[in-house]
Amino acid sequence: MTTSATSAARTAAAPTRSHDNAPAAYAHGPLLAIIARRRRYARSVATTRVTAALRRAA
Is 10 helix (H, G, I), strand (E, B) or coil? Predict the structure, then answer.
């Protein structure tokens, strides 16, 4: 067995990082952080559009 195969098997069998103390946003890896970032961006864009519409109406 080669070194890369051994390290790959070891990585798959025992994850090196424990998520016991991780924040909730990173509990499932970076995916939830990406979703949170996209939600913040969407909220910012929506707020900007509403503000612009109110300025045009005023």
Answer: helix
